[in-house]
Design a protein that fits this description.
By secondary structure, the protein is mainly α. The chain has nine helices and no strands. The protein has a domain of 134 residues: Tetracycline Repressor, domain 2. 72% of the residues lie in helices and 0% in strands. Helix 6 runs antiparallel to helix 7 and helix 7 crosses helix 8.
């Protein structure tokens, strides 16, 4: 790859990473092309050298945001080798994760958009949900028991819902309580007071 092609690829990757972060923070409708290109240090006019449309950029950035989340969840599960599910719950339902949506799980941010979206967006979202279910159940797709899969579905749904609500409520105490209580219940621990 020549220098100009390498520079073009680097610029495209920078725009994608910025768009993926902004999607996690603001959803799919908010970030505009001009502001994304400006944040990447590029001109608005150069946008079409990298993407066919804003929708093309948003689709690719959403897919990147979802994959980034999978990497982080896998890392969180490895933190507690004896009980990976506990490590995952503790990391996911933390104030740190709640307070950093730009680097957090895109399953939370993109759920509603994927539900209303085209087949490609739904497929990318579904791929991540399936991957998370495998990670939580500790098995590969199709190899888990009905009970392990049901538990993984409940766990993932509770984690995503609790994180979403903890970000949405105005009361900081309630926000913290949502995270602590759901984490404790999912781990079978007593609910903290």
């Amino acid at each position: 790859m020549g220098h100009s092609q390498a520079a073009k690829a680097e610029s495209r990757d920078r725009v994608l990473k910025i768009a993926a972060r902004r999607i996690r923070e603001e959803g799919l409708t908010r970030p505009g092309v001009a502001e994304l290109m400006n944040e990447a240090g590029l001109t608005h006019g150069g946008f079409y050298k990298h993407f066919s449309s804003r929708e093309d950029l948003m689709r690719q950035a959403a897919a990147l945001a979802l994959v980034d989340g999978e990497t982080k969840m896998a890392r969180a599960a490895r933190r507690n080798r004896e009980e990976p599910r506990t490590g995952l719950i503790d990391s996911y339902l933390s104030a740190r994760h709640r307070d950093a949506p730009g680097t957090g799980c895109a399953v939370v941010t993109l759920g509603a958009a994927a539900g209303r979206g085209e087949a490609e967006m739904k497929e990318a979202y579904e791929k991540q949900v399936r991957s998370y279910l495998e990670l939580i159940s500790g098995t590969e797709d199709g190899e888990d028991s009905d009970e392990a899969r049901a538990d993984a579905m409940l766990t993932l749904s509770a984690m995503v819902g609790a994180l979403l609500m903890s970000r949405a409520v105005a009361d900081p105490e309630l926000s913290d309580q949502l995270l602590r209580t759901v984490a404790a219940r999912l781990k079978g621990a007593p609910v903290p007071s």
